[in-house]
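Box S1 | Example of a co-folding query
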Amino acid sequence: MNHHVIIGNGPAGVIAAETLRKHAPAADTITLIGDEDAPPYSRMAIPYLLHGDITERGTWLRKDPLHWQQLGIALKRDRVQALDIAARTLALASGGTLAFDTLLIASGSSPMLPPIPGIHAQRVNTCWTLDDARAIEKFAAPGARVIQLGAGFIGCIIMESLVRRRVQLTVVEMGDRMVPRMMGETAGGMIRDWVQDKGVEVHTGARIESIESDPADMAAPLAVRLSSGERLPADLVISAAGVKPNIGFLEGSGVRCQHGVLTDERMQSNIPGIFAAGDCAEAFDAVFGKPIVSAIQPNAVDQAYAAAMNMAGQHVQLRGVTQINVLDTLGLISCSFGRWQGVPAGQGVELTDHPGHRHLSLQFDGDVMVGSNSIGTTAHIGVLRGLVEGRVKLGAWKDKLLADPTRLMEAYLACAQAQDRRSLLAT
Ligand SMILES: Cc1cc2nc3c(=O)[nH]c(=O)nc-3n(C[C@H](O)[C@H](O)[C@H](O)COP(=O)(O)OP(=O)(O)OC[C@H]3O[C@@H](n4cnc5c(N)ncnc54)[C@H](O)[C@@H]3O)c2cc1C
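Box S1 (continued) | Returned holo structure for flavin-adenine dinucleotide
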């Protein structure tokens, strides 16, 4: 009889616990530990909560209060402070230790706070937890002046909620375009033009240098100073400056980490029986040719499934990291796959229709498509994913796509189906 312990009760932890219950021997025990004051929930649902489309209950990953009890999974609210790999125990914030036979680290990631004077002031929030959402709901009233720091993936998702709350929104992004780590110059510029047309003020290539706070001044409780010298009054500042994996508690434990917990294809760390999945894990990706952290939910659940199957004694390999980003920014759909920036000595093609808000960029390494950006179309998302993740050899179709990138579906039908396209999961 084994005790499987999972640190983190987000999507990765939940999928892993349920997979273990299904595939591990019935006598095994499973403990799911989370440190937030809420039932396991989805951060992805927070924008819908801020829209008012759902209540907090709508963010819960499992609604039935008896779900965990019925599965015989112990939910524990605590914070893991340290890991002792020799004793195979965890030190808990509440005191005491918890022993395990197999361990899954699914501790997710946390927002990074830029070192700006005033970043810890009242009314300056991240948008990451239910607590954050409650604070934003309080201050993001219609007409409120909201300044959002960062226009990355999460920043663009939050923007939609803020616009729907009818606030006066200003976005400050230090990159030269929107979503600079996901989109090239043309695509990022098109997203900026789109949101500006919808009434959002955007400052790209600008930094917030300081945030002054005077909670007693109801006319301007905050004032934000930009690198341009401008001073903007605000009621709320939302910091969306990227995330970092929650791996601090592993320091000195012997579990090998780089940006996240380094894993093999089975999601096992360098320590046998200790696995990692989700936003905190760094796994090898064949498209990039190196380990990467891919902090998106589909990746978290794929990795959690693979890790849990291996914890249950089965052999499941993950043959890549899911790294698709599909964004809906105030109604404009954009996608980014793989190595969208292209590769040295690679070839690329771009097709842009500015008035029609459409754009397609394809990047090749030899005859393999390694990445793509697209704006304004969802028609080819499945095909793009299949070609990039499947590393499909396009042969003569590479030149046909360079001449006319819209022939994607034809290229897929001609090449992908004829080759052994392995799924991400393999047993
Ligand atoms: C507003 C918002 C919108 C998003 N939208 C999308 C989207 O549209 N598409 C998409 O793919 N992704 C989206 N994401 C990202 C997605 O939510 C994450 O990729 C996903 O939550 C990762 O799941 P996880 O289980 O790895 O980590 P998490 O969901 O972060 O769960 C980890 C849990 O572990 C807990 N924990 C951490 N350390 C410890 C410890 N030492 N002891 C105990 N517990 C601990 C954390 O508090 C947390 O509760 C969004 C995120 C946000 C904030």
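The chain has a mean pLDDT of 94. The two ends are 24 Å apart (CA to CA).
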